[in-house]
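Folding follows sequence. Below is one example:
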Amino acid sequence: MAADRRTVIENCAIATVDAQDTEHANGHVVLAGNRIESLGAGPAPRGLENVERRIDAAGHLVTPGLVNTHHHFYQWITRGLATDHNLFDWLVALYPTWARIDEEMVRAAAEGSLAMMARGGVTTAMDHHYVFPRGSGDLSGAIIGAARDVGVRFTLARGSMDRGEKDGGLPPDFAVETLEDALAATEETVRRHHDASFDAMTQVAVAPCSPFSVSTELLRQGAELARRLGVRLHTHGSETVEEEKFCHEMFGMGPTDYFESTGWLGEDVWMAHCVHMNDSDIEAFARTGTGVAHCPSSNARLAAGIARVPDMLAAGVPVGLGVDGTASNESGELHTELRNALLINRLGPHREAALNVRQALRLGTFGGAQVLGRSRETGSLEPGKLADLVLWKLDTLAHASIADPVAALVLGAAAPVTASFVNGRQIVEDGRLLYVDEDAVARSTRAQAQRLARTAAQG
């Protein structure tokens, strides 16, 4: 959208999620090109030039777009399997199938994952892809292409595994890379696809999978590579008691100390889950600025436990929300995580004081942008920031009797998305994607899921 072309949104409630949590019961937002030009209470200023569109958003809440900080898109075509397993048993059950993915399957799965998130209010997504079977094609390119088609802002966390079954790991040997190949392919992905500009639509992070599927040297050299290239680092950490036991037995220390010993704590790092963290671990994350992707639905699905999110926030740890892979969170959309983050944390020791609805919304917006290293650009509604925002319809049967629009959004049923803008471009209208045929994506994902199941059965 040209920088001097304006879109005016009026008559809406607004939750800016800025540093002061500014809200307007009835206000306006003006977009100019791909930026937020102004916002505030009441109608938009008179005399605005080059207004291409005016939206009467009565009955709506406008928020920053949701930011997803952890996902595995390829799992869209293995949903509904191993439904009664803990993490390690679940991985053992599914790795033989995942090890047979190819480019066509990954492209379809990425389209399904992205479409589901985008139609539910996600404007910035990420994918941690770490399964690269030999001869499977350009998987990173397929994922990035799908994100471009759907129209979301995107971070690819280029994952890797070099600890296969013969080395005591869980994945089949033909689904892992050598240390040298993993580092070389990761560097090539960064050089080909990473955009460091303010309004970048595609960024890349360095992301070895987990302590129990990668070597210490891959972690150490991966951190060195990321810092040499100036990109962020991502991995799984402290997800289960089994992982903690593995780290003590293998390395003689817990996960956080192990990560610190390999250079994996810092403001440029975020980790998924972080369920089993003691006070010392939380202090280390706060001291170093290491971020957390909180995935409440997946943690419950795999019986991993309840992450200490209230304690992390109190200590100053950056925390965002993640869908996680849809083989452990079959709904695949982030609104569920707003609600579940609040509800599940209230089952913990802080009870009703654990989180409130505005903290939950902050986790899903600004917190996520902070974790991905993009809080200067997005995550809150402020003049000069990128025009990534969502219009939630709250005047229907599902929400109309809830006076507080933020409570309606977080605690109510999934709110319809009337419009979603990314970089000033509308990508969703009345709950439907504008640039991707959802029905075609559904057919494609079903066909690829069936093909993968056949391939795995023959394997």
Notes: The chain has 14 helices and 17 strands. The chain has a mean pLDDT of 96. The radius of gyration is 21 Å. The first strand starts at residue 6 and ends at 15.
